[in-house]
């Protein structure tokens, strides 16, 4: 026959009563005394906030509308795909280091980059819990690390494969786009956001000050002038060969954008993908 548990109680500042159970009175009172100490430190020991509730507050207060669109989407996806399914229903106060390790074990098959994002975002949510006296210390202890292998370093294309790619798209709409990417190192979105006014034909320079992004569910795209870093806003030299191509293309362009649809608007995601159909 199982022994009966001993129960002791404590009245919390809001008037509610909290119960502590143990195999012995000493064990039950030790649990209560621990919470008394936490109360003295300002921790709300009666808080029932779930991890999901706290994570949503953290995302809304600190991330939503404050980051580059792609970065915001990455954080939202990391929460929804990996973190919330594992911790979401738990009370924040109940999460222990073993649960965080379990979370990391659940993503151990994924890349090191993904694992780092999972751990970093989880740490940030629990840091908010500590700052707001929901818990006294974070369960994301230092011994828990992201695993996985480092991604292989991507080697830039040399002159020969670059020329082969240009030869493959010669005579198509894609030729100028590929030439711009290869010559300047622009990202896809930066090239799509390039306007004729960004090009100084007299001094042979190009100023990067916007990109086109395609948030989930929006194939038309959006103009983003808040590039990832301050260094992303830059002025770069344009080679003589690329300048000649741009000069020729401007003569027939009826758009403000270097790469555009017939309407004059910047390329949509569908229009961009259609350019590459020559390889199908």
Uncertain segments? none
Q: Quaternary arrangement of the chains shown?
A: single chain
Give the biggest sheet. Answer: 3 strands, antiparallel
Helix-strand pattern: EEHHHHHHHHEEEEEHH
Radius of gyration: 28 Å
What class, by secondary structure content?
Answer: mainly alpha
Estimated share of beta-strand residues: 5-15%
Mean pLDDT: 88
**Apparent shape:** elongated
* Distance, first to last CA: 73 Å
Number of helices: 10
Considering DSSP H and I runs of 4 or more, what fraction of the residues is helical?
A: 40-55%
Report strand order across the widest sheet.
3-4-7
How many beta-strand runs? 7
Describe this structure in words.
The chain is mainly alpha-helical. It has ten helices and seven strands. A three-stranded antiparallel sheet has the order 3-4-7, with no helix packed on it. A two-stranded antiparallel ribbon has the order 1-2. A two-stranded antiparallel ribbon has the order 5-6. A hairpin with an 8-residue loop joins strand 5 and strand 6 (222-224). Helix 3 packs across helix 4 and helix 3 (69-87) crosses helix 5. The N and C termini lie far apart (73 Å). The mean pLDDT is 88.
């Amino acid at each position: 026959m199982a022994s009966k548990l001993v129960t002791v109680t404590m009245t919390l500042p809001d008037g509610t009563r909290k119960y502590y159970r143990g195999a012995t009175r000493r064990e039950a009172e030790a649990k209560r005394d621990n919470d008394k100490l936490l109360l003295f430190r300002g921790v709300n020991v009666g808080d029932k906030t779930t991890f999901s509730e706290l994570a949503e507050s953290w995302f809304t207060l600190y991330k939503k509308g404050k980051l580059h669109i792609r970065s915001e989407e990455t954080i939202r996806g990391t929460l929804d795909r990996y973190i919330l399914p594992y911790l979401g229903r738990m009370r924040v106060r109940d999460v222990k280091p073993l649960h965080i390790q379990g979370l990391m074990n659940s993503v151990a098959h994924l890349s090191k980059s993904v694992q780092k994002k999972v751990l970093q975002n989880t740490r940030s949510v629990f840091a908010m819990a500590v700052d707001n006296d929901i818990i006294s210390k974070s369960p994301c202890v230092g011994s828990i690390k992201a695993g996985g292998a480092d991604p292989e370093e991507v080697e830039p294309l040399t002159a020969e494969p670059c020329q082969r790619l240009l030869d493959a798209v010669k005579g198509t709409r894609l030729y100028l786009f590929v030439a711009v990417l290869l010559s300047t190192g622009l990202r896809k979105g930066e090239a799509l956001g390039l306007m004729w006014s960004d090009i100084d034909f007299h001094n042979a320079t190009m100023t990067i000050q916007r990109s086109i992004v395609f948030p989930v569910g929006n194939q038309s795209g959006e103009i983003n002038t808040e590039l990832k870093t301050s260094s992303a806003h830059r002025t770069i030299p344009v080679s003589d060969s690329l300048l000649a191509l741009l000069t020729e293309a401007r003569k027939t362009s009826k758009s403000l954008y270097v790469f555009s649809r017939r309407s004059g608007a910047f390329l949509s995601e569908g229009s961009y993908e259609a350019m590459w159909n020559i390889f199908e």
